[in-house]
User: Which sequence fits this backbone?
């Protein structure tokens, strides 16, 4: 085959030949098809030149045909990727005398105006900006000139509502242009090419799927760093566990050897890991995630590219093709949870077809190690998770109907229905459901309809723009440790709504916490050591693990058990380090039989082993909890991870609990699952939070609104049996549950016998996986009390002499004398009050002078009298107790008058009063 670059315009050919020499295999396949005007889904590994396979022929067609601008639209899912693509495209444009510009949420008004008046040939944008541009008077005319639309990183859009919105937006663009327009979609990792192609191209466009036949060379290994005496010392220095210190040391060694991106699954882990790494000498790292400002992210990218940094610690913000220079290796902190994630991330290293992409997963003992091994194993076998697009989301449909009504005054509703039906997600939309939504929109005063045609209202126009983004705007809550009064971390609004009621437990920064109180944008918590708290509370909000990955974990366990945990067999079969193999051997030692489904118990918890992934296990856990709660007349909680479901039996005997659980297993039908979930879900915090976001997208609630739980529940009851309610239910069932898969598992469970075993070693290790993430050493009760004591001693109090009223001072408790006296009159009658109580001295002086006091002053004076009485008797100890939060003079007196208190008992009493204060203070003002 000849050099396909020769088929390009002469200027493009000369530049491509000079820059690349020979075309890659994917360029040889794609360039001729683009020149022929075909719609294409192009799938090729990172570094194989797929972007240029679309851009070079697009440039060529522009130069040859001299299309009017805007002729080429380049869509990416990230603003940061837009910025990167602009610099890449400008290199060509400057040499080809073409114009390019970028348009996204941060584009200034002046830049937007210039783009309308002096349009570029190539416009780089985001899915949301398409929605806005379709309504711009000048831009609409310019969009009619479009000849080629390129959608990059398409895998990031197929499974979410952003993608659905874009897909309908593309159909609206096609209708506007009223002639064929060429679509090219690009991706490195697509689990379901046919579904992805149908999703992007719709029902009216023919397409071809071009998949690279060459395979990218990967070298991926799983490691569990060996713990050493050095790590124990390092852990004390960094205030982390020995195992976490071993990981940090290993990461430091790796990033010192090679330029690296260290990927984590959450922003919080990225921040904690970054702070720990920066405390190590010569560890030049930066943190990069979507919550950081644009300037901070650009600074990290630039510093890494220039060689000033050894590594960037990132989340999904760097998974896509942002150019940050040469990356020699990818480090995954813990399991990436999906094969697609593993390959997408690892592909960022060795960013060319001739280089090998190097990846290493730094794993922990237990589920994390097995899961990492499973994912790497499946990656080498060619497995990728399947795409799962949303089916007819009603909030997006409402927005797109409004968009068409805004574009075309007095448009026929059948035409709107026809345009929307062309997109894959709405291919099965019934006209009756479409009309029901129109009726709801008319009730909201978004549209007017005479039965045949639709007109938008002014309110509808405003609503269209307000709902352009389908991404929920989440508030952040600060988590405060009530013992130390210190900042622990942040939780987003969805987590708080779903899990943070007083008494609930969760894991944050590798430690278990119990919610004491929830206030405005603050969660007050206390450290707990219960087994329950060590069960991951928010597993479902992490990247979901598929059934295939979970089943492969089960297969790996069976293999190791059959080989009697021999290291040699493990190393021959799987890609892991020697110490990781040794860790596996120790985990699986003496385990000769691995059973897919069994029931285990500890204390009042029942564990059903079920290696079927997050969605199926979440479905089973929720379903059986509902049935058993009705059976026993009390709440039954369950928590699920990809490998097991954990039920809290409460005061029901384990034997009785298991008997009834298996009764429902044997008597359940598939229809029961969906019906039971739909009845029970509206009472859950998950439903309430999702309803809130959907109500915002429907415009029923303003996005900046802050609703109490009671108000939200009332709103849900008002909008029961409306599209908002139906969409919330559909969204949850689609994203969080798998009813069909769960029922298939129930069929398998029907042969399960009522045999309860003790908690196995594997289950015990798995349930503690969250605590391995940069875990701080577990704090004993004595340590908690020691931190409380330190805080009280550092607290400032105001002291005022009640004998002369002339002396007042603010001092830390630790600096107060054992028996405080007034330096002016030598009296021991010293009132204690809070450091911010500026009126104490004036009130006491007024009282001493015999002047009349107002009501507030009289109340305050009684407090001062009680505290001074206690100071005479207990001296500095009175100040120590008074320094506690919420402990006034009356409570201080009650604590101090308890006989024969040891220091530990005194601190326990103070801590109990503080907890009580935090729990109840929100009611005191009511």
Assistant:
């Amino acid at each position: 085959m000849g050099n396909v670059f020769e088929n390009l315009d002469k200027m493009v050919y000369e530049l491509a030949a000079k820059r690349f020499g020979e075309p890659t295999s994917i360029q040889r396949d794609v360039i001729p098809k683009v020149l022929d005007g075909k719609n294409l889904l192009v799938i090729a590994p990172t570094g194989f030149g797929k972007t240029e396979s679309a851009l070079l022929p697009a440039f060529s067609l522009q130069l040859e045909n001299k299309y009017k601008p805007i002729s080429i639209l380049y869509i990416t899912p990230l603003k940061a990727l837009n910025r990167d693509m602009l610099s890449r495209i400008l290199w060509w444009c400057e040499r080809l005398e073409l114009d390019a510009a970028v348009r996204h949420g941060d584009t200034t008004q002046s830049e937007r105006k210039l783009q309308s008046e002096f349009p570029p040939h190539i416009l780089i944008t985001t899915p949301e900006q398409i929605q806005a541009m379709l309504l711009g008077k000048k831009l609409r005319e310019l969009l009619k000139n479009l000849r080629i639309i390129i959608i990059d990183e398409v895998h990031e859009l197929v499974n979410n509502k952003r993608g659905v919105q874009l897909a309908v937006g593309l159909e609206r663009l096609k209708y506007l242009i009223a002639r064929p327009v060429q679509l090219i979609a690009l991706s490195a990792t697509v689990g379901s090419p046919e579904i992805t192609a149908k999703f992007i191209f719709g029902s009216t466009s023919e397409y071809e799927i071009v998949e690279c036949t060459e395979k990218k060379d990967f070298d991926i290994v799983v490691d569990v760093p060996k713990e050493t005496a050095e790590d124990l010392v390092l852990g004390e220095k960094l205030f982390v566990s020995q195992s976490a210190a071993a990981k940090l040391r290993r990461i430091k060694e790796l990033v010192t050897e090679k330029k690296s991106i260290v990927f984590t699954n959450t922003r919080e882990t990225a921040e904690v890991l970054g702070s720990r790494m920066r405390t190590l000498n010569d560890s030049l790292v930066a943190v990069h995630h979507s919550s950081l400002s644009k300037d901070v992210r650009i600074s990290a990218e630039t510093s890494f590219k220039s060689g000033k940094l050894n590594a960037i610690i990132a989340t999904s913000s760097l998974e896509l093709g942002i150019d940050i220079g040469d990356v020699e290796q990818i480090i995954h902190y813990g399991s990436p949870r999906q094969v697609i994630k593993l390959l997408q991330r690892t592909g960022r290293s060795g960013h060319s077809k001739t280089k090998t992409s190097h990846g290493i997963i730094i794993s922990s003992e237990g589920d994390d190690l097995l899961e990492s091994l499973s994912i790497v194993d499946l990656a080498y076998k060619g497995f990728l998770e399947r795409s799962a697009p949303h089916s007819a989301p009603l909030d997006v449909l409402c927005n797109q109907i409004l968009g068409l009504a805004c574009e075309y005054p007095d448009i026929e509703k059948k035409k709107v229905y026809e345009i929307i039906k062309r997109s894959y997600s709405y291919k099965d939309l019934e006209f009756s459901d479409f009309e029901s939504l129109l009726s709801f929109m008319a009730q909201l005063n978004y549209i007017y309809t005479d039965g045949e045609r639709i007109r938008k209202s002014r309110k509808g126009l405003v609503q269209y723009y307000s709902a352009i983004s389908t991404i929920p705007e989440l508030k952040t809550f600060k988590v405060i440790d009530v013992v130390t009064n210190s900042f622990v971390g942040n939780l987003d609004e969805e987590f708080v709504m779903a899990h943070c009621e007083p008494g609930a437990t969760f894991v944050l920064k590798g430690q278990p916490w119990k919610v004491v109180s929830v206030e405005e944008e603050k969660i007050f918590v206390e450290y707990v050591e219960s087994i329950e708290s060590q069960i991951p509370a928010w597993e479902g909000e992490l990247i979901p693990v598929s059934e295939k990955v979970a089943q492969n974990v089960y297969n790996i366990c069976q293999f190791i058990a059959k080989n009697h945990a021999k290291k040699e067999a493990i190393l021959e079969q799987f890609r892991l380090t020697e110490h990781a193999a040794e860790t596996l051997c120790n985990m699986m030692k003496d385990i000769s039989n691995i059973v897919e489904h069994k029931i285990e118990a500890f204390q009042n918890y029942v564990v059903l082993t079920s290696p079927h992934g997050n969605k199926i296990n979440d479905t089973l856990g929720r379903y059986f909890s509902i049935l058993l709660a009705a059976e026993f007349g009390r709440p039954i909680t369950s928590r699920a991870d990809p490998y097991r479901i954990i039920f809290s039996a409460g005061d029901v005997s384990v034997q009785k609990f298991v008997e009834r659980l298996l009764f429902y297993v044997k008597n359940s039908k598939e229809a029961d699952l969906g019906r039971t979930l739909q009845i029970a879900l509206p009472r859950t915090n998950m439903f309430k939070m999702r309803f809130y976001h959907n109500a915002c997208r429907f415009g029923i609630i303003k996005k900046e609104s802050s609703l109490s739980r009671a108000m939200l529940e009332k709103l849900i009851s008002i909008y029961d049996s409306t599209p908002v309610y139906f969409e919330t239910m559909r969204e949850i069932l689609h994203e969080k549950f798998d009813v069909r898969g769960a029922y298939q598992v129930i069929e398998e469970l029907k042969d399960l016998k009522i045999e309860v075993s003790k908690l196995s070693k594997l289950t015990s290790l798995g349930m503690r996986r969250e605590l391995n993430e940069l875990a701080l050493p577990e704090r004993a009760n004595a340590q908690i009390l020691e931190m409380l004591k330190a805080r009280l001693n550092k607290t400032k109090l105001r002291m005022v002499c009640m004998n002369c009223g002339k002396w007042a001072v603010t001092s830390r408790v630790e600096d107060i004398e054992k028996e405080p006296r007034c330096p002016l009159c030598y009296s021991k009658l010293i009132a204690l009050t809070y450091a911010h109580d500026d009126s104490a001295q004036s009130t006491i002086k007024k009282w001493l002078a015999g002047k009349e006091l107002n009501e507030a002053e009289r109340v305050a004076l009684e407090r001062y009298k009680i505290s001074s009485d206690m100071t005479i008797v207990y001296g500095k100890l009175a100040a120590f107790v008074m320094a506690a939060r919420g402990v006034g003079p009356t409570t201080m007196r009650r604590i101090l008058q308890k006989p024969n208190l040891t220091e530990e008992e005194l601190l326990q009493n103070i801590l109990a009063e503080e907890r009580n204060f935090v729990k109840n203070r929100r009611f005191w003002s009511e």
User: Anything to note?
Assistant: The radius of gyration is 32 Å.
